[in-house]
Amino acid sequence: MRVLFLTPLVLLAACSGEKPPAPAPSTNAPVAAPMPPEPPVQTPVTAREVHEKNELYEFDYSYPAAAGAVPELKALLDNELEEARRELKAQATEGRKAAKESGFPYNPYTHTVEWKVVTDLPAWISLSTLVGFYSGGAHPNYVYDTVLWDRIAAKRRAPVDLFTSKEALRGAIRARFCEELDRQRARKRSGSGRGDIPEFSDCIDPTEQTVILGSSNGKAFDRIGILVAPYAAGPYAEGDYEVTLPVTQKVLDAVRPEFKAAFVAR
């Protein structure tokens, strides 16, 4: 038989007809943590991206938030966007008219620009892009472009203008550039049956290609990129070439005095 033991307090409540008081909440019960305050709403600096497609042309143009955060640079890129779109529309209109007069089918023209950050330094921002286009030829093509923005002067500069002259920069990088270019050529051509291609066997002038400035430490420029579009160093089938070179003391010696602080030799 089960025996029920009642405490005096329970017996007293039973005799008086009153309900026993509710037990006090345990001090060991978990307490819900207060909700953290909502973070302040911030309006992010967004990149601009434009896509336009119709029967006449297809146009794409974009740039990253880092570029959009610099008002003068944003204005420059916005102006280039509108100019590129106007030119594409005019060329496509003329191309469609010519195709109709000749009795040929018309294929819409295209223009594509996607700016990307090469490096973002306290005093500089370096961008590069592949500009793709089709204007009625046998196949689409592309070239490279770059923007080097001087934050202090609030202006665009050509990378080669940071050096005393094109000749000085060429003399500082040509040997290494040619060596790397030939190495890449050999890799692309091995097993292809092409071997040496007479018209694409000599070295080319690196300063006549798209020169970009980069950084591995986020503090100063310590490398130079040479972007080579199709047909410049090889046939279209080989595509482009990209050669990256370190900033050596020889390169540093070719930098203009007022820009030397922006570079460091590796």
From TrEMBL:
List each coiled-coil range: 74-101
Give every Deacetylase PdaC domain span.
Answer: 51-142
Q: What keywords tag this UniProt record? A: Coiled coil
Classification via InterPro entries: PdaC (IPR025303)
Domain of life assignment: Bacteria
Q: Where is the composition biased (Pro residues)?
A: 33-42
Region described as Disordered: 17-43
Q: What is this protein called in UniProt?
A: Deacetylase PdaC domain-containing protein
